[in-house]
Write a structure and sequence with these properties.
The structure is a single chain. The chain folds into two domains: about 15-195, Gcn5-related N-acetyltransferase (GNAT) (Aminopeptidase, 3-Layer(aba) Sandwich); about 210-339, Gcn5-related N-acetyltransferase (GNAT) (Aminopeptidase, 3-Layer(aba) Sandwich), CATH 3.40.630.30. Helix content is about 25%, strand content about 30%. The protein contains eight helices and 14 strands. Strands 9-10-11-12-14-13 form a six-stranded mixed β-sheet. It has a five-stranded antiparallel β-sheet with strand order 1-2-3-4-5, sandwiched between helices. Helix 2 (about 35-45) packs across helix 3. The radius of gyration is 30 Å and the shape is elongated.
Length: about 350
C-alpha cells in the first residue's frame, strides 16, 4: 500500500481532488500540504512500516518532501477520467496531527485500473484508523469520483490489512502468479476488488447549497430532457428578462421568463403600485409574446393565484388548463396561450 511517486502527469485540474475534504468521526483526510513533510516522515519511519510494501524502504525527510511536492502537482492535474495519484494525508482530529496516508492511483500491474492504498503510523495502529480512512476513501472513489471499480493487492501474511479489506467490503478475486520480472515482488499477493455496480451506496440528503450544486442538477435534467426532444428543438433555451425603468434607471416593474424548446414560460410578472392600471403589465406581456413568436415558440404558459392576476391573463387570451385548490387558502391556476 504505497505512497510513492510512479506515474507521469498531464496538466489538467479538477476541484474534486484539490479541494477534497473527507471527514469521518475521528479523521480528516485532505490532500498533502507542503508543511506535512515532518509529520509524514515520522508516520512512515516505523521499523515495520514497509514490511509488506514491495520494493520500497523508509525514505529520507528530503525524499518525503519530494513525494509531497509531486503529490500536490498530481492532485492539480487529476480528473475523474484520469487519476495520476490522489494522495491524502490522514489527520487525527483529537491531536490535529498527520498520522498516515490513504489514496487512489493507477495499479502498477495494470494502469487502467485504480487501486486504493493506505498506511498509518505504528504509534496509531490497533485503533481502527486505517479501516476508517480506507472506508472513507473507498466511498469517495465510488460515489463522488464515480469509479466503476477499485482494486488492491495485499501480501497473504498481512493479516491486519486483510481484515481491513474485508471490513470495507472488498472481495478476494485471485492470487498473483507468474508475473513479469519487473513485478516479481508482487508474486503470490492476493488481489481484491469492489465494483460500483450493484453496490449499496452510503448516501444522505443535504440542504447545504452551492451554485455549483444547483447548476449540476439543472444540467443533468437538461441533458435528460434533451435526449427526448426532436433534434431541431435541442439547444433552444434562453432567458427572457424585461424591465420597466424610470429615467434614473430604477426598476418599477418587470417580467422574468425563459424560452425552453418550443414554449415561453413566464415565471414572474410585477408592476409597482404606482404603475398599476397604466398598461405596463400588458406591454411587458406583449413584448414577451413578440420575442416568443420571433423564436418560433408554439405557446406561452404561466401560473397565478386567485388573488393575483387571473382576470388580467384571461383578457390577454390565456386559458386555464389546470388548477389546485387550497394553495395557502387560495386557488392556484395554470394557464396557457397558443401562438
Amino acid at each position: 500500500m504505497s505512497l510513492s511517486k510512479r506515474k507521469a502527469v498531464i496538466p489538467i485540474a479538477h476541484h474534486l481532488f484539490v479541494d477534497a475534504r473527507i471527514e469521518t468521526e475521528r479523521l480528516l483526510l485532505r490532500p498533502y500540504q507542503p508543511d506535512d513533510a515532518h509529520d509524514l516522515f515520522l508516520a512512515v519511519s516505523g521499523q515495520h512500516f514497509y514490511d509488506f510494501i514491495p520494493g520500497e524502504s523508509t525514505p529520507t525527510l528530503k525524499e518525503v518532501q519530494g513525494i509531497i511536492d509531486w503529490s500536490i502537482s498530481c492532485c492539480e492535474r487529476n480528473t475523474k477520467e484520469q487519476i495520476h495519484k490522489f494522495n491524502l494525508g490522514v489527520i487525527c482530529k483529537e491531536t490535529d496531527r498527520l498520522i498516515g496516508y490513504c489514496g487512489l492511483g493507477p495499479y502498477d500491474l495494470d494502469p487502467t485500473k485504480i487501486e486504493i492504498y493506505y498506511g498509518i503510523s505504528e504509534r496509531y495502529t490497533g485503533r481502527g484508523f486505517a479501516t476508517e480512512a480506507a472506508a472513507a476513501v473507498l466511498s469517495y472513489g465510488l460515489d463522488v469520483l464515480e469509479l466503476d471499480e477499485i482494486i488492491t493487492t495485499v501480501h497473504p501474511q498481512n493479516h491486519a490489512s486483510l481484515r481491513i479489506l474485508q471490513k470495507i467490503g472488498m472481495s478476494y478475486s485471485h492470487s498473483l502468479h507468474n508475473l513479469p520480472e519487473d513485478f516479481s515482488d508482487f508474486e503470490s499477493y492476493s488481489y481484491y476488488s469492489i465494483k460500483r455496480e450493484g453496490l449499496p451506496r452510503k448516501l444522505h440528503i443535504s440542504s447545504e447549497t452551492t451554485q455549483a450544486d444547483k447548476d449540476y442538477v439543472r444540467k443533468k435534467m437538461y441533458v435528460f430532457n434533451a435526449a427526448h426532444f426532436p433534434a431541431e428543438l435541442k439547444g433552444r433555451y434562453q432567458e427572457v428578462n424585461l424591465f420597466v425603468k424610470n429615467a434614473q434607471g430604477e426598476v418599477l416593474g418587470g417580467l422574468l421568463g425563459e424560452i425552453c424548446w418550443n414554449w415561453l414560460e413566464v415565471h414572474y410578472l410585477y408592476v409597482s403600485d404606482e404603475l398599476r392600471q397604466s398598461g405596463y403589465g400588458t406591454k411587458l406581456m406583449r413584448e414577451a409574446e413578440r420575442i416568443a413568436r420571433e423564436k418560433q415558440c408554439d405557446f406561452i404558459k404561466l401560473d397565478t393565484l386567485s388573488f393575483q392576476a387571473l382576470d388580467f391573463y384571461r383578457k390577454l387570451g390565456f386559458e386555464v388548463y389546470g388548477q389546485l385548490p387550497n394553495a395557502g387558502g387560495y386557488t392556484h391556476y395554470y394557464l396557457k396561450r397558443d401562438l
